[in-house]
UniProtKB/TrEMBL annotation, chain B:
It comes from Nyctereutes procyonoides (Raccoon dog). InterPro entries: AP2_Mu_C_sf, AP5M1, MHD. Probably part of the adaptor protein complex 5 (AP-5) a tetramer composed of AP5B1, AP5M1, AP5S1 and AP5Z1. The keyword Transcription does not apply. GO terms for cellular component: AP-type membrane coat adaptor complex; cytosol; late endosome membrane; lysosomal membrane. It holds the Pfam family Adap_comp_sub. SUPFAM superfamilies: Second domain of Mu2 adaptin subunit (ap50) of ap2 adaptor. PANTHER family: AP-5 COMPLEX SUBUNIT MU-1. The keyword Chaperone does not apply. Keywords: Cytoplasm, Endosome, Lysosome, Membrane, Protein transport, Transport. This is AP-5 complex subunit mu-1. Gene3D superfamilies: Mu homology domain, subdomain B.
Length: 886, 496
């Protein structure tokens, strides 16, 4: 292996300062740096500088730290990653035996380079060096003085375990063959945490892979302490695992056991005993792990044992009580994972109730930070119940979480917005429950509480000059309530009224109202439209609010209360003095146009086209007037259909986006498939039979054809009134008028109307007209001498024409089959099965004559004549193609 | 359970970019897995600049909330946790765990070992809680103990080395970064077997155990007939155990006097080895009655080297330590105020300090104050529109003090005067700040004699107690006030 490419090592050593600058520049923007002049050499320089004696250890550590973060930039391909790992390992070996801060980061860097660079594998020399080295270090074997003083061994042992764990994560099954060894180490005096986590991960992966392969544990756990050096590394399980890296079992009930590929594994009694012992060993010493590591261990073991028959999860029980009392996010989360994995097998109904209480408590405990509260609230609403009632995957209040338990979790105005929304969601769920209950609690009504809260939110949102976040929060809360309680008029009626009042006191919130209307269903949307329209039309208020009113009207104006709306607009027109306002006004007109409002609107538009100050506004008003006068209702609706993006510099430009789509013929991907059907070979001219299929209904279809050059006379377009998917359509006939008997491509365009009334055109794939498509039979004399007729034709070809003969190979079915398949309509004289005389008329006025005589088993000699020498090569190709086809 | 990347971003309002990336760390091996697991829904980790921009926008920390922006302000864009999706380069980077604390934004992106569309529930992603724990760990490391910028910069510079120790490959090994710092220094110590991972060395020296109980009391008082006042005590027990041996065992018992208030909602440190079920189930959710468990509360544990919070609790004491009322009436540009405070007789009348802060929001600066206090002294902060009544170390014999006066305000100028979204119109409060040493409101104490230590040598045991106020509000009873009902707050109309 070339440790470093030829470009490496040529740069002179750099000082600490230069490196600091270089690293700083790199970190500021890795992509910009790598694109720059220094980028290319960075990876090589870094590796060579690690051996420089001029750089301090601290600088070298910072170089290694960079390589831990950006290996893909430094060594972009597998070969470079492999070379880098080799170089890093060389550097490690060459370190003098005194204590050094570099050993640990070098191990991490080599591991990262291999794993991130996709180089890890049985063919990688660096992998085959690194793995035994790591395993040796992890086992605490004496690797000689080269690996530093004894004082460093403990830390290197832990590091080696971490490296192995990372490699196992990236290549599941890598350590499958070393489970016994790892167990043995854990029982001895190895560092507990790194070994526990490594063993747990390797165990989980091995179980998952074996379960998928429907294989047993095959004594993996009982391998004992095999010697670590000297045996070739066993990649079998890792190869198996790599195929299954995706998707990993999420360990959550929403994904079914089978679905995530964790087929149920049934270990033999002996294997089961060993497995239990290993898990118990891990759990018993788990209190020695840091809380985050304990949580990882529980997730891994939960995953590992989930698919296993005959592995009672009671092993976890002794840990649970201890962990339930803690305030640690990771530990409670891990318990929830176990709950999801094992359900009733591990948690009785009482346990479930206790867990819920602890979770409720943690979701509001004053000693915990807000982020933790919010996460616990999420956990409550996604709580893995033993017997869930609702559909999975939806947030819901667990059955055991009654109103009493929730009272500390009610939302208040003083809460942070996220806490308020999370708690509000819970409150909404309670309200929904409360509605279903027959007897309601006398002392306290969640609906009343909800109403008060929403009123408070609106009051704050109405604050003039208040931050937008307050308004946003109010609308988010309203949206959440509508989503959860859409079926409860008792909630929606005061909400609608309250929102109308909010608009009245702060019209500047119009964009929020428009957004809300866009997103809620008709339960709130319909009544809210009505009250907002009334609000605007009845109480126009001050001039400042006009632009907001117009924005709202553009959203809510429809066919109802036309005269009031038009009256408002007429009055507003006088006040619309600047471009923005005029555009907003016209936007409302546009909404009315779409809604099919007619007469009064025409008058208004005419008036606007005259009186608006801005020419742009006048033009637009005139355009609308013309549209209103000339387009039928549905077409108008479609023309104005797609709502406008933000107004561009000119309203007509902006409008264009809509019209361009609606009124102009737009190119579209064709929903039409066209193919050539069987040949007809009759009549005076060749006719193509076209077969049409459509993917969606198509109306007024016109197909236009064009031939390259002057080969054929121009083709007539073909019209079809309508086509529906799945409904057969009779073939379309396309008569061809060749000027010369030659094959060609037809360029095809389709023009059609969509079900929504838009006209579209599409370019279809070209159609091929083959030589054979042009064949027509000769009209025969009534009772005539067929042989004589043929001979006459045959003789007439020369001397003007051309003559040829060729060997046409035959398939197993012989000459008869070939003729009946391809030449039947053109046969003049037949003596089956050995001799046929064929005369083909090629429009406009050429002939092709074939004598197929004295057929043998494998072929037939063909003599051919034509009066048009240009046909000869085409005929030859055709005949050779025939033999290939049969 | 791994993290793909971690960031610390200082939030700098008004700066051109709105912030600076102070630290970032990527984990390429985890990224490799993310690519495989997430499949088509994979979005790569962006560079620091674009990430910061997108995060500040999502957290509403850019100063541009003038206009409605749909991707941020839409009513359906609802965030109920500190986990966000950031729109970057046409894709959505999710889940981004992030929160702002002390002007620093802490953020990380946990690995999700499955496809991201649709988003799996957060509860099913092990990396979420691990991510939070990592960020909390960094936060504790940066801010526990010290506050000044130089010290924080020093600590920020230590972070790369510490994470190399505590989170070398993106999988967190220890959220206690101080431990990692110590383990770098302790590297030469040879460890005997069964050394806990959360204890990097052993203590050598005189054995001693220190236990300190800090109670914070919060309250909402209204002086209204139809609204009940509320108050709550939150306690924290902090220990530092300097004991020899690898795994010394200690048991601390917290006791209550006969009339003490039971401890509830107890959360313990993970080093506690077992818990009585009465401790586990004692909760403020349940109605109080005589059968409530009133201790002693025993906590057996194996202490870590550093100082740690053994447990937290809450309690519902029968009366608030200081009961009062606040009446404020607006008269054009003036307000008339009357305040009355009464210390409960059972409370130790010996404060380290006691002050009442009376802020006036959404008004102009104070131009004139006429006042009369029966005790202590009144300080006026005109520009801040704030009065501070310094009560001092002791209430007078009567235990009751009062203040009355008139405050006049100048014209409102938006930039300077404090804005508040709650204190609109007559809605106003005063806030009490006080501290009493060697005292707890619940009566809770750790008896020196009940502390059991199973280690060589007899340790010196010292105990400390203190009560401090936190969120202690007395609301104007002449106007609507945000009201606590069942532990939460709402604005209710005033019926007086």
């Amino acid at each position: 292996m070339e440790a470093q490419g030829s470009g490496c090592g040529t740069m002179g050593p750099r000082g600490r300062e230069t490196w600091a600058q270089r690293l700083g520049a790199f970190r500021a923007s890795p992509s910009a740096f790598m694109a720059g002049p220094e980028g290319e050499d960075l990876g090589c320089d870094l590796l060579s500088e690690l051996r420089s004696e001029k750089l301090s250890e601290q600088t070298k550590v910072s170089l290694l730290a960079l390589s831990l973060e950006y290996p893909a930039q430094l060594w972009p391909d597998t070969a470079a990653a492999e070379a880098a790992a080799t170089s890093l390992l060389d550097t490690l070996v060459l370190l003098p035996p005194r204590p050094s801060a570099l050993r640990r980061p070098l191990l991490l860097a080599a591991t990262t380079a291999l794993a991130a660079g996709d180089a890890l594998g049985p063919t990688s020399a660096a992998s085959l060096r690194l793995l035994p080295l790591l395993l040796g270090l992890a086992s605490g074997s004496d690797l000689g003085r080269g690996f530093g003083p004894a004082s460093e061994q403990r830390s290197l042992q832990a590091t080696a375990c971490e490296c192995l764990r990372e490699l196992e994560s990236c290549k599941p099954g890598l350590l499958g063959g070393r489970l016994g060894l790892l167990r043995g180490l854990l029982g001895q005096e190895g560092p507990v945490q790194p070994l526990s986590l490594l063993l747990a991960l390797a165990l989980r992966n091995a179980l998952v892979i074996q379960a998928r392969a429907r294989a047993g544990l095959q004594g993996l756990l009982m391998a004992g302490d095999a010697p670590t050096v000297g045996i070739p590394w066993n990649w079998a399980l890792a190869e198996e695992g790599a195929a299954h890296l995706q998707p990993q079992a999420p360990g959550w009930p929403a994904t079914e056991v089978q679905e995530c590929g964790l087929a149920v594994l049934e270990p033999s009694p002996e294997e089961a005993r060993e497995l239990r012992a290993a898990v118990a060993q891990l759990l018993d010493t788990s209190y020695l792990l840091t809380p985050v590591a304990q949580a990882q261990l529980l997730w891994l073991l939960g995953w590992a044992l989930r698919g296993l028959r005959g592995q009672p999860p009671v092993l976890f029980k002794p840990q649970l009580v201890r962990l339930l009392g803690t305030a640690q996010l990771t530990l409670l989360h891990a318990i929830l994972a176990l709950k999801a994995a094992f359900g009733e097998a591990l948690f009785t109904a009482q346990d479930e109730a206790l867990l819920l209480r602890r979770l409720t408590l943690a979701a509001q405990h004053p000693a915990l930070p807000l982020s933790a509260h919010l996460f616990y609230l999420h956990c409550l609403l996604s709580f893995p119940e033993n017997w869930p009632l609702g559909p999975t995957g939806e947030e819901a209040a667990p059955l055991l979480l009654g109103p009493r338990l929730c009272r500390g979790l009610l939302p208040s105005l003083l809460h942070n917005p996220m806490a308020l929304l999370a708690r509000l969601h819970l409150l909404c769920l309670l309200c929904a429950d409360d509605e279903e209950k027959e007897e309601k609690a006398q002392d306290w009504s969640p609906q009343h509480y909800l109403e008060e809260l929403l009123a408070g939110l609106r009051q704050r949102a109405a604050l003039d000059g208040g931050p937008r976040a307050l308004a946003t929060l109010c609308f988010q809360a309203s949206y959440l309530v509508v989503r959860c309680l859409a079926m409860q008029p008792a909630v929606l009626t005061p909400l609608t009224r309250g929102l109308a009042q909010l608009y009245q006191s702060r019209p500047a919130l119009a964009p929020h109202f428009v957004d809300l209307l866009d997103r809620v269903g008709p339960e709130l949307g319909e009544p809210l439209r009505v009250v907002l329209r009334q609000e605007v039309v009845a109480r126009p208020g001050k001039d400042e609010a006009l632009c907001w009113h117009l924005q709202i009207l553009a959203k809510v104006a429809d066919g109802n209360a036309q005269s009031a709306t038009l009256g408002f607009l007429r009055a507003a027109a006088a006040r619309c003095t600047d471009w923005d306002l005029q555009q907003a006004l016209l936007q409302v007109c546009r909404a009315l146009l779409r809604a099919g409002v007619g007469k009064g609107l025409a008058d208004l538009l005419q008036a606007l086209a005259r009186q608006l100050e801005d020419p742009d506004g006048r033009d637009r008003a005139r355009l609308y007037y013309i549209l209103l006068a000339h387009l039928a209702g549905p077409k108008l609706g479609v023309a104005l259909g797609p709502s406008l993006a933000a107004p561009a510099a000119s309203s007509l430009v902006a409008e264009n986006q809509g019209f361009a789509a609606a009124l102009m013929v737009q190119e579209a991907p064709a929903p039409i498939r066209l193919s050539v059907g069987p040949r007809r070979a009759e009549g005076p001219v060749p006719v193509l039979q076209l077969q049409v299929e459509v993917l969606e209904p198509v109306y007024s279809l016109e197909l236009r054809f064009r031939v390259e050059g002057q080969l054929y006379a121009p083709l007539e377009a073909v019209h079809v009134p309508c086509l529906y998917p799945g409904r057969p359509c009779r073939p379309l006939l396309l008569p061809l008028q060749p000027r010369r008997p030659a094959p060609t491509h037809l360029d095809v365009r389709a023009l059609y109307t969509t079900p929504s009334g838009l006209t579209r055109h599409a370019h279809l794939p070209p159609l091929l007209v083959t030589f054979a498509d042009l064949f027509l039979p000769f009209p025969q004399s009534p009772e005539g001498d067929k042989q004589g007729f043929f001979e006459e034709l045959w003789d007439s070809c020369l001397p003007k024409g051309a003559e040829s003969s060729l060997w046409c190979p035959l398939g197993p079915r012989g000459l008869e089959a070939l003729v009946s398949h391809h030449l039947e309509p053109f046969v003049v004289v037949a003596q089956p099965p050995t001799s046929y005389h064929v005369a083909i008329h090629l429009p406009p006025n050429s002939r092709l004559l074939l004598r197929l005589e004295a057929a043998q088993v494998d072929g037939v000699p063909v003599a051919l004549r034509t009066d048009d020498w240009a046909v000869l090569p085409l005929a030859g190709d055709y005949l050779r193609g025939l033999s290939a086809a049969v | 359970m791994a993290q793909r990347a971690v960031w610390l971003i200082s939030h700098e309002p008004g700066a051109p970019l709105g912030g600076t990336v102070r630290f970032s760390r990527r984990y390429p091996t985890v990224e490799k897995r993310a690519k495989v697991f997430n499949g088509a829904s994979y979005v790569p980790i962006p560079e620091d600049g674009p990430f910061m921009k997108a995060l500040l926008f999502e957290l509403r920390l850019l100063d541009d909330d003038k206009d409605f922006i749909e991707s941020r302000d839409s009513c359906s864009h609802i965030n109920k946790t500190s986990v966000y999706g950031l729109l970057i380069g046409g894709g959505e980077l999710w889940p981004v765990v992030a929160f702002l604390k002390n002007t620093m934004i802490y953020a990380c992106v946990p690995l999700v070992e499955q496809t991201l569309s649709p988003h799996p529930p957060l509860i099913s992603i092990s990396g979420i809680s691990q991510g939070f724990e990592l960020l909390f760990g960094i936060q504790d490391f940066l801010y526990l103990g010290q506050k000044n910028d130089t010290e924080i910069n020093t600590k920020l510079n230590q972070l790369p080395d510490l994470l190399l120790q505590a989170c070398p490959f993106g999988t967190l090994l220890d959220a206690n970064l101080q431990n990692s710092l110590d383990s770098i220094n302790f590297a030469s110590v040879t460890h005997p077997q069964k050394q806990p991972a959360w204890k990097v060395g052993t203590y050598k020296g005189k054995p001693q155990v220190s236990i300190s109980i800090t109670e914070k009391v919060k309250s909402m008082q209204y002086d209204k007939q139809d609204i009940a006042d509320t108050w709550q005590v939150v306690g924290a027990v902090t220990c530092k155990c300097d004991l020899e041996g690898i795994m010394p065992n200690v048991t601390i018992s917290l006791s209550l006097p006969t009339n003490g208030s039971p401890l509830q909602d107890i959360l313990v440190h993970p080093c506690v080895t077992s818990l009585d079920s009465a401790i586990l189930t004692s909760s403020s959710i349940d109605a109080m009655d005589d059968s409530a468990f009133s201790g002693p509360y025993k906590f057996p544990f194996t202490p870590p080297l550093e100082s740690f919070n053994l447990c937290y609790y809450t309690s519902q004491v029968p009366v608030p330590p200081i009961l009062g009322f606040y009446q404020m009436k607006e008269e054009e540009i003036k307000v008339k105020i009357t305040v009355n405070l009464k210390l409960h007789e059972s409370v130790k009348n010996n404060f380290e300090f006691c002050e009442a802060h009376i802020p006036f929001y959404n008004r102009g600066p104070i131009t004139h104050v006429e006042s009369k206090v029966s005790f202590g002294q009144l300080e006026v902060f005109r520009e801040k529109s704030l009065l501070i009544w310094i009560i001092g170390q002791k209430f007078p014999k009567s235990m009751e003090i009062s203040l009355s006066g008139t405050v006049t305000f100048g014209a409102k100028s938006h930039e300077k005067q404090p804005f508040d979204e709650i204190c609109i119109g007559g809605t106003a409060y005063l806030k009490l700040h006080f501290k009493i040493l060697d005292y707890t409101l619940t009566g809770c104490y750790a008896d020196q004699h009940s502390v059991q230590v199973f280690a060589s040598g007899k340790p010196k045991i010292s105990t400390y107690r203190k009560l401090i106020s936190s969120d202690y509000y007395i609301w104007n009873s002449k106007a609507p006030a945000p009201v606590v009902t069942y532990g939460s707050l709402l604005l209710v109309r005033c019926h007086n």
